[in-house]
TrEMBL record:
PANTHER family referenced in this protein's UniProt entry, alphabetically: ALPHA-D-RIBOSE 1-METHYLPHOSPHONATE 5-TRIPHOSPHATE DIPHOSPHATASE
Cleaved signal peptide residues: none
Chain segments annotated as coiled-coil in the UniProt record: 191-218
Swiss-Prot/TrEMBL keywords: Coiled coil
Protein's name according to its UniProt entry: Amidohydrolase family protein
Species: Bombilactobacillus folatiphilus
SUPFAM superfamilies xref list: Composite domain of metallo-dependent hydrolases, Metallo-dependent hydrolases
Domain of life of the source: Bacteria
Length: 402
C-alpha cells in the first residue's frame, strides 16, 4: 500500500488550541491519516512532501451553501435545471478553492445537489467540488421564503410548498426517496423573499415537528432557516438539529438550544454583504430588511456564542455578493462578535462535522480521518484572516486540488 508523508509543518489538528511545530503525518492510498508525530521520529514513505514550515489546518466544513445561486447576478426565479447545474459546478469549484472541502447545500432547485452528490459517489463523471451533503429542495409555505417560481416555463417552485403536517410528511419522504441527507425548513421569512418580513412566522410548529420526526427516523438532519424570534422558538421546540441565521434569538431560546444540543449556524457574512455592496444593485426591500436588523443580528449571535451554544460554520454562499471564494471571511466575522479564533476554527471543523454526522472521518486531522487540509503562510490561531489567503494550498484526501 502506497504511503505519502507530509513533513515539516506547523500542524493545527483542530482538537486543541495549539499548533504542533515540526509535525509530520502519514496517509495511505485511501487518503486517510495513519500516523503522525514530530521531527524526532519521521518515518519512511513512498512519497515525501515537504511543507516548508507552513501552517496546516483542517479543510473548512461549510454547512450552509447555495451553489445554484449567482452572488453577482442575483437571479432567483425562472432558472432552468441546466442553468442551476452549470452554476453549481462553477460555484462548488470556487468554494473548494476558497478552502471549503465539505459543503452542505441548504436548498437546491431541481434537486441539483442530490444529483451531483450521487454522480460524485458513483464516479460517473469527474468534477472539482467539495464533498457535497445534499438537502434538495427546501420546505416552504405557500407565499413564504422559498416559494420562488423556477424553470423557464414556471413548472416548479424552488421549495416544496407544504401547508399542512400531512403535506410536510409527504415532502420529507419524497426528499428522502431522491437522496437528501438533510431537510431544510423555512420557519420564518427572509431577506431575499419579496412577499414576507424577516420576523414573519411561516411553517407552523406542527409542520416543523413532523419534518423533524420524519427526518430523524431516516437518519437525516433538519436545518431551520429561522430569523424571527417566534419562528426560532418553534424550530427549537420542534427539535431541529441546527438553527440557520438565528437573527433574533432570545436568551430563553439560547438556553433551550444549549439544553437540547441544537447548533447555531450564524451565516453573518450573508447579512454583512447586502448593505455593504448592494446599494443601487439590489431591490430596495432587500436593503431595507438587511439594514433594519443587522446590529441586532450580530449582537444576538455574539450573545449565543458567549453563552456556549454549539456553533457551526456556514456562509449562505450564493446570496447577494456573498462569493463562494470568500467563504473564510465568515471566520473573521464570527471573531468580531465574540468568538475566539479557536472557537471559530472548531465551528468550521469538528463542530460542523458533528452536526453533519461525519465526524468519524472528517473535521480534524487525526489518525483514521481523511486528510482534507489547507496549507497557509500564517497561523490562524494568531490571525484568523490567515485563512483568507488567496493562494493557499487545498488538499482533499491527501491530494492537492489547488
Amino acid at each position: 500500500m502506497m504511503k505519502t508523508l507530509f513533513k515539516n509543518s506547523n500542524l493545527f489538528t483542530g482538537t486543541t488550541n495549539e499548533v504542533i511545530p515540526n509535525a509530520w503525518f502519514l496517509i495511505d492510498e485511501t487518503g486517510k491519516i495513519t500516523a503522525s508525530g514530530t521531527k524526532e521520529n519521521v518515518p519512511t514513505a513512498d512519497q515525501v512532501i515537504d511543507l516548508d514550515g507552513k501552517y496546516v489546518m483542517p479543510g473548512l466544513i461549510d454547512v450552509h451553501t447555495h451553489a445554484m445561486m449567482d452572488p453577482v447576478g442575483n437571479e432567483m426565479e425562472y432558472l432552468s435545471e441546466t442553468e442551476a447545474t452549470v452554476a453549481s459546478l462553477h460555484n462548488f469549484k470556487e468554494l473548494l478553492k476558497g478552502g471549503v472541502t465539505t459543503a452542505r447545500e441548504c436548498g437546491s432547485v431541481f434537486d441539483v445537489d442530490i444529483k451531483l452528490a450521487k454522480m460524485a459517489a458513483q464516479g460517473t463523471y469527474s468534477f472539482t467540488a467539495p464533498q457535497i451533503i445534499p438537502s434538495g429542495r427546501p420546505m416552504s409555505m405557500t407565499g413564504g421564503h422559498g416559494d420562488f417560481v423556477e424553470g423557464w416555463d414556471g413548472s416548479q417552485t424552488w421549495g416544496y410548498l407544504t401547508d399542512s403536517p400531512d403535506e410536510m410528511r409527504k415532502a420529507v419522504r419524497t426528499a428522502f426517496k431522491w437522496g437528501a441527507k438533510n431537510i431544510k425548513v423555512m420557519a420564518t421569512g427572509g431577506v431575499m423573499s419579496a412577499t414576507d418580513q424577516i420576523d414573519d412566522t411561516e411553517l407552523s410548529l406542527e409542520e416543523l415537528q413532523v419534518a423533524v420526526e420524519e427526518a430523524h427516523s431516516k437518519h437525516m438532519t433538519v436545518a431551520a432557516h429561522a430569523e424571527g424570534a417566534r419562528g426560532i422558538h418553534n424550530a427549537v421546540v420542534a427539535g431541529v438539529d441546527s438553527v440557520e441565521h438565528g437573527s433574533y434569538v432570545t436568551d430563553e431560546d439560547i438556553q433551550l438550544m444549549i439544553d437540547k444540543g441544537i447548533y447555531l449556524t450564524p451565516t453573518l457574512i450573508a447579512g454583512y454583504t447586502i448593505p455593504k455592496y448592494g446599494d443601487g444593485k439590489l431591490p430596495q426591500y432587500m436593503l431595507d430588511k438587511a439594514r433594519s436588523f443587522l446590529d441586532t443580528y450580530f449582537e444576538r449571535v455574539g450573545a449565543a456564542i458567549k453563552a456556549g451554544v454549539k456553533i457551526s460554520f456556514g456562509t449562505d454562499s450564493g446570496t447577494p455578493f456573498n462569493r463562494f471564494s470568500e467563504a473564510s471571511k465568515e471566520l473573521e466575522l464570527m471573531v468580531s462578535v465574540g468568538a475566539t479564533n479557536y472557537q471559530a476554527l472548531v465551528a468550521a471543523g469538528s463542530s460542523a462535522a458533528q452536526l453533519l454526522k461525519i465526524d468519524d472521518e472528517y473535521g480534524t486531522l487525526e489518525t483514521g480521518k481523511y486528510a482534507d487540509f489547507l496549507v497557509l503562510d500564517g497561523n490562524p490561531l494568531v490571525d484568523i484572516k490567515a485563512v483568507q489567503q488567496v493562494d493557499k494550498a487545498v488538499y482533499q484526501h491527501g491530494n492537492k486540488v489547488f
